[in-house]
Amino acid sequence: MVEMTNLPEDPRPEDSPVSAAIGGGGESWWKIRLALMRRSFRDNWKIFRRNKVGVFGLVIIAFWGIMAVMPTVFFATGFWTPAVYDPVTGLELDPPTRTMTMVERITDPNTEIDRRAVLLDGRIPDTLQIGDTFELPLQPAPPDGRHWLGTDPLGRDILSQLMHGARASFFLGIVAAVVTVVIGTTIGSVAAYFGGMVDSFLMRLADLLIMIPGVALLIVIGAVFTYQLWHLAVVIGVLSGFGGTAIVLKSQALAVKVKPFIDAARVAGGSARHIIFYHLIPNVMPLSVLYMMFTVTGAIQSEAVLSFLGIFNTDTSWGLMMNLARTQGYLLQVADFWWLTVPAGLAVTLLSGAFFLVGRGMDEIVNPRLRRR
Amino acid sequence: MTADRLPVEVSGGRAPLLEVSGLVLRYDTEVGEVSAVENVSFSLGRAEAMGLVGESGCGKTSVALSLLRLAPDNARYRSGSILWEGVDLLGLSDQQMRLYRWAEISMVFQGAMNAWNPVYRVGEQIREAMYQHFDPPLSKPETNQRLDDLFRLVGLDPAVQNRYPHELSGGMRQRAVIAMALSCEPKLIIADEPTTALDVIVQAQILEELKEIQEDLGLSILYISHDMAVIAQVTDTIGVMYAGKLVEFGPTREVFRRPRHPYSFLLLSSIPSVTGPRRRPVSLEGTPPNLLAPPAGCRFHPRCPWATEQCRNDEPPMMQIGPSQWAACWNAEQVPEMGDQLP
Amino acid sequence: MIRYLTRRLVQMVLLFLVFLTVTWFLLYILPGDSVALKYAGNPNIPPEAREVALERLGLDKPVLIQFRDYMFNFFQGDLGVSFNQYPRPVVDIIGERLPRTLVLFLTALVTYYWAGFVAGKFLAWRRGNRGEMAVTIGGVGLYSMFLPFFAFMLIWFFSVQLGWLPISKFLDPEQWRDAPFAANEVFMRLFWVTLLTAIAMFMASLAAHRTRGRMLERILRWGGGALVIAAFLFYWFGTEAGQGMRIYAGDIAFHMILPVLTLTLINFAGVMLLTRSSMLETLREDFILTARAKGLPEGMIRDRHAARTALLPVATSLVLAVATVIDGGVITEAVFSWPGMGEILISSVLSEDIPLAVGAFAFIGVLALIGHFVVDVLYGLLDPRIRVTEHG
């Protein structure tokens, strides 16, 4: 069983049954709560810091955090111009070229169209004769001084897309995590507090939800809705919040429910709402933060998969970058066009993995029995 | 057990069963070396019941586990020896040591609830030990017969062996643990807090039965407990440990009548006596020392009412006080008899 | 045990009904009749044809009637007709695809649980914090590896660079041009033979686990395993039925290697990490100390005591993992164009073939439910505490 830690069992002196019943305390109530939170945060940070794995994850998250902020800086300082570096509409007008010599002209016998010319998108002047040399624009272009990670088949900067993709991932992950935590703690606490029918209903619902393969469901939903990033975040959050997270948090809330201060609040006439929101939820919070991390991992992965499969439409995302590489046929030419797939693929892996690592690091705080002795 | 499985070095035939001398055990930890057992020596004869008492963390369990060489991985034996019938257990290879475990020395663990693997039947878990240690191996009917006998011996229905641990009550589990400890005919049983988790009535029954079994089978038992009452009831000799050191050793009767170490005295005074002279229970002030950096001199001096300058500087050795009583105290003579008033 | 299982079974069936209802409403009702739109709104379809199509599809009836019909038909095995592969019934398509998914899924599941468990067991047994960080980071890295990316890297490496394995698909059409068998026939044969082999292997190792003689255990484990493998080979090389199909079955199996490898590698790490921490936890238990004190050999303490008990939380995790594993399967099928349930799900969704999509999704749900039920049974068998409490 998971045990509570660090949050003191009886959260504050003012929280005597009497003041709880009157609902008084007001300002000082919050001050104390805040001070306690700060203290427990400090203590927990000390424990967390010792966990190398968690810190490693945090470093990766920080790296991507910086990546997500960089485009704003680059555009603001004029280092990047939107015309070239915009992740969606940007275009490198002056790509690197390769000098080629025309050795033969092939004309399709049926259509009389110069096939080579078609292949090269009409970029070879008609006047070109055999033996002439010409400059073939390279698109996708390999990394160079202007585009540190090269450009994609449409001539857009990969690094810029990667940075904007980080932004999308953070947004998605955080929204999904917040939704999960809000729903999960509420459902878990309500089920634990009321028990009986309410509990049974909510837990059967959770049973159902954990059984549903999330990606498959999102694919099916994708068949009938065109949804946006935040829709996706909410759906993932709801699935996880009502499902697995609710189950775990309920058992945690049950453990809190039997503690004496809950009885004290109840004896003093605290309403169900009061007890749930002021006593149960704050005490299951640490564990829910842990589940938040795992939700982020899942959310980032799901989005990437959906974008990759072309089911989910968004402007920029890591999955979409790989989707483009796939639809344009570069996916299996990893050695020649690595910048189209490897940065995006690694980005998904690293960021989602980093949240998972942080979650594991936090596990040691939330589950004291795992702590090193 | 056949003799050829054990490297026998019988020393004169009258060697005690177990002789621990100068045992020093330290734990390697991230913050430094914890001195858990410091220069502990005692011996235990055949068919003798001895007790080791002390507060939790005083090293008594470390001593017990050392006899089976089961101390945690970070344990380091700095010096000393554990002679079992003349053979130093600390010098054996892991494979040789394995043959001594259970066959010669078995153990009744603290908190018998967790001593059972939840996924196997009780009988199965005893059988696997018997399967390891009988040479020639017992046949199937012999094993079953022995198992039935063992269960009857400890006062359980032999049918209990087909149950899972979680289906037994605390008392039943503890009895089954004793049956398991007896299964390979050991010469010594280490009973680490054998009754702590049980209610008082079951506790008394089990202690009574253990005592009977010990006398009937001629076993030696080493009781490990923080509970003076338990020790008084069942042991012949007693060792008192404080902060990793053995501070007093002697016949139980003597030590209880006239402890010669202040710690033993205070420990005994802290339990109210029903039959003895009326006195006020005293409480022991202070806390046990930090074993990462034990105090200089006598480890008990910060809490000792009789402490002198000498106690603060020089570590007292074990000194013979009575015919068979030893204490590690410079001022052993000043420790009053039980029932006397504190100075 | 029986009562417990019956209760779980009833719960599962009820859950499935809810699941089906929700799915149906989600797809048919919410999008503002997108099915009808596909036909009604398409100017290329003449009005009369549209009427006929709508009527045949039952789309002209009120929603609740449609729902009732759908449920009725579902349990009679009629899931409607695919739009895109008209007039092929959905059930027919699913009937063909489901075993393919199952095979991929089960092979990968067994492989990675076994490999992960064994790896985790040994990692924990070596103990110490040495390499803990490397193992955790490596494990998490593999676990959170972006599946399509990883799959394509494997394809690129093994198929493009080395040319050892086929890039994708279920079989090699060149080789099958004059085949005297239908692909499905061969596949089903392969399926049954392999399943029987796996069951026989499992029985042998179970028997080995049960015995106490170490010699006997070894004979059963290795000898039994060898015997089963010999029987398996004999079927394909020695019997007439097997010989004829061998090349074709071999081709299908050849195409399975890479998808199974992908799924195994991705999921293996999670099981390994979990087993490792569960095992480390178990090693601290008193009964391990008891086992040591009893003088049991180390291998016995590791396998019979620590690993066997550490298996319990790992088995529980399987309950939560069923959905994740199915998701992984869906993605893998898409990447490898493996014609299974996941691949139909995605292609039908992309081509807006709603009946097929619902059917596929419903059966993926069935798969998840059955998976759960099996895991429940398994858990009951593994943990005597469950077995007995439920006796009541």
Structural notes for this entry:
The complex is a heterotrimer of chains A (373), B (343) and C (392). With 373 residues, chain A is an all-alpha fold. In chain A, 65% of the residues lie in helices and 3% in strands. A two-stranded antiparallel ribbon of chain A has the order 1-2. In chain A, 45% of the residues are buried. Chain B folds into 2 domains: 8-104 and 186-339, Rossmann fold, CATH 3.40.50; 112-185, no CATH class. Chain B starts with 17 loop residues before the first strand and ends in a 16-residue tail after the last strand. Mean pLDDT of chain B is 83; it is low at 1-14. In chain B, helix 4 (140-153) packs across helix 5 (170-182). Chain C folds into 2 domains: 2-73, no CATH class; 90-386, no CATH class. In chain C, helix 7 (147-161) packs across helix 11 (240-283) and helix 13 runs antiparallel to helix 15 (354-382). At the A-C interface, helix 3, helix 7, helix 8, helix 12 and helix 14 of A face helix 1, helix 6, helix 7, helix 13 and helix 14 of C.
Number of helical segments with 4 or more residues of chain B: 10
C-alpha termini separation of chain B: 55 Å
Shape of chain B: globular
- Mind summarizing the main beta sheet of chain B? 8 strands, mixed
Major sheet attributes of chain C: none
Based on DSSP secondary structure assignment, what is the total number of beta strands of chain B?
A: 12
What is the string of helix and strand elements of chain B? EEEHEEHEHHHEHEHEEHHHEE
- Low-confidence runs of at least 5 consecutive residues of chain B: 1-14
Helix content of chain C: over 70%
Give the integer mean of the pLDDT values of chain B: 83
* Strand residue percentage of chain B: 15-25%
The percent range for helix content of chain B is 25-40%
The CATH class of the largest domain in chain B, by name, is Alpha Beta
> Per CATH, which architecture of the largest domain in chain B?
3-Layer(aba) Sandwich
Strand content of chain C: under 5%
Query: Total domains of chain B, how many?
Result: 2
